[in-house]
Monosaccharide ABC transporter substrate-binding protein, CUT2 family (Herbiconiux ginsengi), 350 residues
Amino acid sequence: MLAPRSLRSRLLLASGASLAAVALMTGCTSGGSTTSTDTAVEENTVEDNAASGETITIGFSGPAADHGWLGAINSAAIAEADKYDDVELVVAEGTNDANLQISQVETFINDKVDAIVLLPTDGAALTDVAIKAMQAGIPVINVDREFSSTFAARTTILGDNYGMGVSAGTYICEQLDGKKDAVVAEIAGIDSLPLTQDRSKGFADALDDCGLEVSNRVAADFTVQGGEAAASQLLASAPKIDAIWNHDDDQGVGVLAAIDAAGRDEFFMVGGAGSANVMRDIQADNTVLKATVIYPSTQAADGISLARLIVQGKGMSDLVESAVPRKIQLYAPVVTKENVEVYLPSAFES
């Protein structure tokens, strides 16, 4: 179902702003000059894009895979590169140390790779070295965590954290169907992170459009242990709940453990991110978990695919525009029992 009109308007405006940022094939520098990332786009068909071209080397660097979603990011990127006989993928060891990741990118630059796909452990900290790569004529594909300068990336691929909150809130509104006294609870991730703030803002906006609000809110830390502790606190302070949105399916393992321990089942729960174990629970329909909102773990894989197109001078064949867009934001769909079979094959294990 569509979101209510006022919320749809906000989303359409946001989408328009993203689509307007289409297609600079130039790797601009702060001085306004261009780099060798300027490539003439000659073809824009499915057949030409799939055809093998000149072999290119792509460097990939991401954070340590200490979370199910991050592990899926890495494995999907490697699997995508394996599809192409004209792509050689160099994978740096995953790290949560920004300085180490900077040195990895500098190695890619020194080795003169053709493109870099980078999910930065800290977008601001990796901005300068990404600009350095762009100035060296190496297109950078920024994944998930944005750099602080537009000159640091040729293309940026993002999930939709605000949209996750909107999707979760809209689903809950639909299920509660006008119950104005409903008690809605929220188990967030790490409150200091912009992504958590965006998810909470989208959730609050969607609830507001159907006359509801968050009655009880706690924050966890994206871990199983943190989810269990936060959920235990929430359940102890809220004797009655109608619906819960938990931001993250990894921490949701602990959330469900706390719910089971408390013997509570008067509410339904919506998850976040889209893990396989959560989707199996939704499919079985034997817990309070009835839906989850996807935060795509395909972003780096998309980055590999787009890096190949950019370096080989190709565009996206389903677009009239002849070049790869400068920014792409992925959708945050709701997975329920009715559509879970569509999403389960690509889900990650938490």
In short: The CA atoms of residues 132 and 202 lie 35 Å apart.
